Amino acid sequence: MENKWRILIFLFSTLLLLVFACSSEVPDSGNKPSASATPAPVPVRESLPDGIDWLTNETDPPFSDPAAKRGGTLHIALMSFPMTFRVVGPDSNTAFRSAILDNQFSLIGIHPNTLRIIPELATHWAYGDDKKTMYFKLNPNARWSDGIPVTADDFAYTLDFMRSPHIVAPWYNDYYTQEIDRVIVYDDHTLAVVSTKPDPDLHLKIAIGPMPRHFFDPLDEEFTRKANWAIVPNTGPYQIDQYKKGRYIRFSRKTDWWGDDLCYFKHRFNVETVRYQVIRDSNLQWEYFKKGRLDNYPAVIPQTWYIKAKTPVVENGYVNKIWFFNDTPQSAMGFWLNLDRDIFKDVNLRYAFAHAIHVEKVITDVLRGDYFHLESAYVGYGPYTHSGIRARRYDINQTARYMTQSGWHRGPDGIWVKDGRRFSVEVVYYSDEHTQRLVVFREEARRAGIELQLLKLDPTAAFKKILEKRHDVAWVAWGIGMRPAFWEFWHSTNAHKGQTNNITNTDDPEMDRLIDAYRASLDEAERIDLAHRIQQRVHDIGAFVPTFMVPYFRELYWRWWRFPDPPATRTSGLLMDPFSSSTGGLFWFDADRYEETRKAMEEGKVLPPATIVDETYRP
Question: What pLDDT score was predicted for residue 154?
Answer without folding.
Answer: 98
